[in-house]
Amino acid sequence: MLHPKILALGNRILPRRVLAWLDPFQAFIDNEVRLAASRTSRGDIVLDAGAGEARHRKYFSSGLYLALDSGEGEARWDYSGLDIRGDLEAIPLCDSAIDRVLCTVVLEHTRNPGQVLREFARIMKPGAELHLVVPFLWEEHQAPRDYHRFTRYGVRLLFESLPFETELFIPVGGFFWVFARRCVNLLTFFQRRWRWPLFVVLAPFFGILFPVVLYFLDGLD
Fold first, then answer.
1. CA 188 to CA 184: how far, in whole Å?
2. CATH number assigned to the domain with residue range 42-159, chosen from the 4 options 1.10.10.570, 3.40.190.10, 3.40.50.150, 3.40.630.70
3. What is the pLDDT of residues 162-221, one digit of tens each?
4. Cβ atoms of 51 and 203 closer than 8 Å
5. Domain ranges of the chain
6. What angle do CA 185, 12, 135 make, to 5 degrees?
7. What is the mean pLDDT of residues 9-24?
């Protein structure tokens, strides 16, 4: 992944539309979080499962937002904003307690994704909603706690024996979006010592130009 300072700089100086072209997967995640927030009623209890630094809290002012995480994903993250530290395979909440569960790019870090989904089913009230986003062809991250990748068929298989009704199932992006992500990932090899000058030369092409072009080519897939 790109250095956090480079990501922070890009987020500050680039328009939101351009950021969406450069990283459409992150844009989809952000839109899904905003959708979940828009469907949250006053007084609803929302569990952000695998919340990390609880950066989604700002979207859920109308409900009671609970940030749950093991606190072990990234050493450089600040986990002080968590409400609950715990294991997603044994969530420390009572049955039928939650109105909405948010779980974005977290399931791949759990040893037993099926057990995590069973725990979600246990703690969710009747009629509660689960907003789940999982990766397909992503680079390894948060090593060594990175165990799984999911095809659309694998996700459906996980839900087959669980008491969920699927309202919407969306595969995000195609070949060209994945290729664009690989272009950006290539730059990570040049984020060290004497390679930084090469990073500066390559970044405009692999970090901006190619991803933007590939974003618009994705409709061909």
1. 8
2. 3.40.50.150
3. 888 887 888 888 999 999 999 998 998 998 889 999 999 999 999 999 999 999 999 998
4. no
5. 1-38+173-221, 42-159
6. 35
7. 88
Closest by Cα among 75, 80, 74 to 57: 80
**How far is residue 142 CA from its own chain's centroid?**
13
pTM for this entry? 0.88
Burial profile 56-89: b = 16 or more Cβ within 10 angstroms, e = fewer: bbebbeebebbbbbeeebeeebebeebeeeebbe
Choose among 75, 141, 148, 68: nearest CA to 107: 148
What DSSP assignment string belongs to 179-202? Answer: HHHHHHHHGGGG-SGGGHHHHHHH
DSSP 136-175: SS----STTS------HHHHHHHHTTSS---S-------H
**Residue 136 contacts by C-beta under 8 Å, 6 or more apart in sequence?**
149, 150, 151, 171, 178
Predicted confidence (pLDDT) per residue in 95-145, tens digit: 999 999 999 999 999 999 999 999 999 999 999 999 999 998 888 888 888
Q: Which of 63, 46, 158, 153 is nearest to 102 (CA)?
A: 46
